[in-house]
């Protein structure tokens, strides 16, 4: 059972995330982006993913380092969704196996 505090934090994060997406949509919907701006917008999801996993690059836990290696390999081969699924799955699996 999830605690009320966790539920409220989860709902707040959901609201902030969705609000930023809506803000970006309404701010940019009638504008034509330059080639440079399009490149920045395409790189943004990868930058967010790297910022989330970057602290684990200095981890001393072998299962996290293996999961990062697999995720980096997947990022060079597959799309973002498959990369995230491989990263989350390998982290969970190796975390369970190395426990």
TrEMBL record:
<keyword id="KW-1133">Transmembrane helix</keyword>
<dbReference type="Pfam" id="PF05437">
    <property type="entry name" value="AzlD"/>
</dbReference>
<keyword id="KW-0472">Membrane</keyword>
<feature type="transmembrane region" description="Helical">
    <location>
        <begin position="6"/>
        <end position="28"/>
    </location>
</feature>
<feature type="transmembrane region" description="Helical">
    <location>
        <begin position="78"/>
        <end position="98"/>
    </location>
</feature>
<dbReference type="InterPro" id="IPR008407">
    <property type="entry name" value="Brnchd-chn_aa_trnsp_AzlD"/>
</dbReference>
<keyword id="KW-0812">Transmembrane</keyword>
<protein>
    <submittedName>
        <fullName>AzlD family protein</fullName>
    </submittedName>
</protein>
<feature type="transmembrane region" description="Helical">
    <location>
        <begin position="40"/>
        <end position="58"/>
    </location>
</feature>
